[in-house]
């Protein structure tokens, strides 16, 4: 009886309409001109995806709260001598990057993540 009560309560919550209105991805200005609206972040309802995350890469859900993409642009000696840039410095770094630099930086971070994930999987099975 308790399980039926819990299941009934959870299904009632799931059936309730969402209070967040849907957001369109394109705004029409005239018959032949349109601008792109900010993309919704898929990882958290109501959040806007950062401008440098365009959704072109597989798995891009608009999640970069620490702006780690800016760190891929920095050279390793700068990070070792000067420390990691804080959030304000990271926002400035990303704002000064061209769209091509942002794409390359994001691809570098993605490739590094794949490499480290594969090494972690090998370590689990006992790779020396």
Automatic annotation (TrEMBL):
A Pfam short name: Chloroa_b-bind
Residues at which chlorophyll b binds: 118
The highest taxon in the source lineage is Eukaryota
The keyword Zinc appears for this protein: no
InterPro entries reported for this sequence: Chloro_AB-bd_pln, Chloroa_b-bind
GO BP: photosynthesis, light harvesting
Q: Where in or outside the cell is it found?
A: Plastid, Chloroplast
Question: Where do the annotations place chlorophyll a binding?
Answer: 113, 116
Name used for this protein in its record: Uncharacterized protein
């Amino acid at each position: 009886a308790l399980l039926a009560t819990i299941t009934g309560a959870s299904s009632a919550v799931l059936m309730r309409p969402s209070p967040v209105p849907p957001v369109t991805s394109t705004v029409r200005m005239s018959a032949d001109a349109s601008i792109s609206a900010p993309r919704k972040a898929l990882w958290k309802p109501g959040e806007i995806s950062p401008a440098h995350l365009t959704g072109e890469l597989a798995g891009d859900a608009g999640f970069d709260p620490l702006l780690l993409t800016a760190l891929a642009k920095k050279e390793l000696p700068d990070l070792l001598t000067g420390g990691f840039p804080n959030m304000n410095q990271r926002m400035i770094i990303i704002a000064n990057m061209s769209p091509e630099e942002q794409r390359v930086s994001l691809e570098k971070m993605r490739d590094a993540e794949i490499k480290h994930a594969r090494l972690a999987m090998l370590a689990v099975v006992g790779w020396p």
